[in-house]
Amino acid sequence: MFEYFSNYLYKLIFNRLFKKRTVVKNYNIKRKIKNIGIIIGHNFDFDDFFIDNIALKFNVLKKNIFILDFNKKKYQFVNNYQYKKDDISFFGSLSGASKIFSNQDFDLLINYFNSNRFLMNIISLKCNKKISAGFINSDKRINDIVFSFSPENKDVFLNEIIKFIKN
After folding, report:
1. 58-71 residue pLDDT tens
2. What pLDDT does residue 18 have?
3. Is 159 helix (H, G, I), strand (E, B) or coil?
4. 104-135 burial, b if ≥16 CB within 10 A, otherwise e?
């Protein structure tokens, strides 16, 4: 019962925040990517090799890749943040690692989750980003680029996102 109530509450908070942030974006998608933020969902596990490939494909320094992980896994990167349950208050304000992560300025935010979980959606919505990419089963309103394949296929993801950003 409590989980149902909290999901309903987070849905209300997300919808309120989305209405406040609805603005027509004007961005040049072919610009150079300098900072990348990645929100990793509960069901996905990255290895450091995949993060190295992202840095290599986008020609970004590893120190400019920021990770917010819901799985509590540590990566070899300095900018690795772990989500905790108290990071989002009852009214939708962020604290702790989620606040530090969302205050960064990202040229590209990758929402690497394939579910409509309002906690991750709220954090993604509050991030300072120029463009965001994600998957079809998440809320389509938070992503500018939406992929319809499974996020488990990481090689396809890298090839497709490079097509959109670099070309």
Report:
1. 999 989 999 988 77
2. 57
3. helix
4. bebbbbbbbbbeebbbbbbbbbbbebbbbbbb
| pLDDT reported for residue 11 | 64
User: Which residues, including other chains, have CB under 8 Å from residue 88's CB and lie 6 or more apart?
Assistant: 10, 94, 95, 98, 119, 122, 123
Q: How far is CA 138 from CA 46, 59, 77, 101, in A?
A: 19, 27, 26, 20
Does the structure show a pLDDT above 80 at 167? no
Give the global pTM. Answer: 0.80
Cα distances from 71 to residues 21, 27, 41, 100, 156, in angstroms, run 28, 32, 7, 18, 23
pLDDT for 2:
47
The CATH fold of domain 2-22+36-166: Rossmann fold (3.40.50)
Contacts with 37 (C-beta within 8 Å, 6 or more apart), sequence order = 65, 66, 67, 68, 101, 104, 106, 108, 109, 110, 127, 129
Q: Output 78-83 pairs: Cβ under 8 A, ≥24 positions apart.
A: 83/119, 83/123
pLDDT winner (highest mean) among 12-16, 101-105, 114-118? 101-105
CA proximity to 134, closest of 165, 112, 161, 150: 112
